[in-house]
Amino acid sequence: MNHKRFANAASTYDQHAAPQLELIGELLKQAPAMAPHRILDVGAGTGLLTEQLATLYPTTPIDAIDLAEEMIEQSQKRLHHLPQINWIQAEAETYTPQKSYTLIASSAVLHWSPNLTATLQNLYNALQPGGHFLLGLMLHGTLWELRELRRRIAPNKGIGLILPTEKNVTEQIQHTGFDILYSTTVERRQIYSNTRDFLQAIHEQGVTALPKHDLPLNRSEILALIHAYEANHATAGGIYATYETACYLLKKPEALSL
């Protein structure tokens, strides 16, 4: 996972995080009623989910991991009043805790994983038998409008943002061994005042970093994209962008007794 896009966005991420906050809200509707013994927040970022987990389970210690040091520093400053949070710079695919967790949570992060199966397997290993995993992701339909216009305007410069489909995510979850207790997908439109504000917002979330082989748009292509977006995706109050999300409540099967 390329952490530079998020390291650079650390100071501005929360200003434009309405879609991420909506996903967190949906995810926490499925949170276990009984307080877990230990929690792992994966890809904690600026601590949006971490803070709500700490509020929901005020006596439970939380390990919050993120690959970007700048995100961790931002979180520590904002949530210094919550002593139960332990911040750790680590990669979800390789993080190895000293003790397993009874609840793992992750929101709006793992869709960026270059090897989602390996990451899910590592988190499965970090979870106690019978433990739960709250997983929220952005799916392929997210920002489809921008992706299609970019492809139309600059067809030789790559296809831009690529996210997994719900089918692909579910298959990888099942392959890992988790039981799916609950899952849902939601498609929402987020309204922005204009296309420039929209592009600025997603840039300041680290979303506009290009895949390895894609080329950036030049000035005339960007202006063409802005004009086309406002012509094709206008709505009351400005322009819209689609966010497709998935929420899962997973469980690691109980250990078999012999």
Task: Describe the structure in your own words.
The relative contact order is 0.18. Mean pLDDT is 90; it is low at 2-16. Strands 1, 2, 3, 4, 5, 6, 7 and 8 form an eight-stranded mixed sheet that branches. It is built from nine helices and eight strands. The chain is 35% helix and 24% strand. The radius of gyration is 19 Å and the shape is globular. It has helices at 4-8, 18-28, 48-56, 69-78, 116-126, 144-153, 166-176, 195-203, 219-232; strands at residues 39-42, 62-66, 85-89, 101-107, 127-138, 179-192, 234-235, 238-251. Strand 7 and strand 8 (238-251) form a beta hairpin. It has a domain at 4-143 and 162-191 and 244-251: Vaccinia Virus protein VP39 (Rossmann fold), CATH 3.40.50.150. By secondary structure, it is of the alpha/beta class. Helix 6 crosses helix 9 (219-232).
How many E-type strands?
8
Order of helices and strands: HHEHEHEEHEHHEHHEE
Query: What is the makeup of the main sheet?
Result: 8 strands, mixed
**Roughly how many Å is the radius of gyration?**
19 Å
**Overall spatial form:** globular
Which stretches are low in confidence, meaning pLDDT under 50 for 5 or more residues running?
2-16
Q: Given the helix and strand composition, which structural class is it? A: alpha/beta
Binned, the helix content reads 25-40%
CATH class of the domain at 4-143 and 162-191 and 244-251: Alpha Beta
CATH superfamily of the domain at 4-143 and 162-191 and 244-251: Vaccinia Virus protein VP39
Distance between the termini: 40 Å
